[in-house]
Specification:
The chain is an alpha+beta fold. About 25% of the residues lie in helices and about 40% in strands.
């Protein structure tokens, strides 16, 4: 069985340390910061590979796109 710990986030302001066994999430813990999630993962699972997965489409990214004028909703007729 191949296991690893994935630190994922931020998703709605939270970070998650997720234990993955053979591609399936086995356990998830929620944290308020990236540092707290990584600290937990390294203490609880020191022998496992650790991977960071940033949340691909966060709210901040959507807001930045609309500020830069690439939001197509503004150009569409009503």
């Amino acid at each position: 069985m191949k296991s690893k710990v994935v630190v994922y986030g931020p998703l709605y302001g939270k970070w998650y340390a997720i234990l993955v066994n053979d591609g399936v999430a086995a356990e998830s813990n929620q944290f308020g910061s990236y540092e707290a999630a990584m600290g937990f993962a390294s203490r609880r699972y020191p022998e496992l590979e650790q991977e960071r997965q940033p949340y691909a489409r966060g709210r901040e990214e959507s807001e930045n796109r609309s500020e830069n004028g690439s939001n197509s909703r503004e150009a569409a007729p009503i």
